[in-house]
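Researcher: I'd like a structural prediction for the single chain below. Treat it as a standalone chain; there are no partners to consider.
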Amino acid sequence: MSYRWTDVLDIAISLDEAHPEVDPLTLRFTDLHRWVCQLEAFDDLPERSNEKILEAIQMAWIAERE
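Model: Treating it as a single chain, here is the predicted structure.
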């Protein structure tokens, strides 16, 4: 299975597994973007993201932690 920018929840779960020590609230969007693009299952164009998508991923990651 590969992820696209619209797979917000799957991306958030993968990020939580890959970076359990990170507080998603303190993460800069530039770092979040880079980490998403580095996920093995990620298969979308980096330039297709925007602030709204990154914020949705961040919020899903926070919700995943709760």
